[in-house]
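Hey team,

Filing this mostly as a record. A colleague (T.K.) asked me to run one chain through the structure pipeline before their review meeting, and I want the input and output archived in the tracker in case anyone asks later how it was produced. No errors, nothing strange. Just documentation.

Input sequence:
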Amino acid sequence: MKYLNLSLLVALILSASSCGTVRTLPVQDSSFVEVRIEREIRIDTAYVQLPVISDRVEVQDTVSVLENRFAKSEAMVSGGRLSHSLATKAVREPVQVQTELVYRDSLVWRDRIVEKPVEVERKLTAWERFKLAAGGYACMLALALLTLFFIHIISNLKTFKL
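Output structure:
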């Protein structure tokens, strides 16, 4: 009886130390979307095209002044009258404009397991192929039975006296 308890303890220890791979499977597909919005205000320079404007005035005086910063002026005296003309030039005038730039970006985060095939360095030996086919539990069961068999033989030898 003492040897039977010992053999059960040895079988339990051997079965607990069997080899195996443990892989935890993901419970759920965890994914979330992150949206980023950035606003930026830039001050740009835009050019405004001024239209061509023409103006003319006649006076009875000897002096006439027409002035414009975009104009071309010509004065002429004929028949006792002073004739003065003013014509604007086609000029591009810079104007500062505030522009709001909005950057929207969305990122999708997803956790997943990607399995890739791995090249092996060598082929499996006959013992390794047997372990894969029979499994570690079958090997432990055979080892436990073999241990019990040897314990049974040893206990019979002690009872046999010469």
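Quick notes for T.K.: Residues 1-19+123-162 form one domain. The chain has three helices and five strands.
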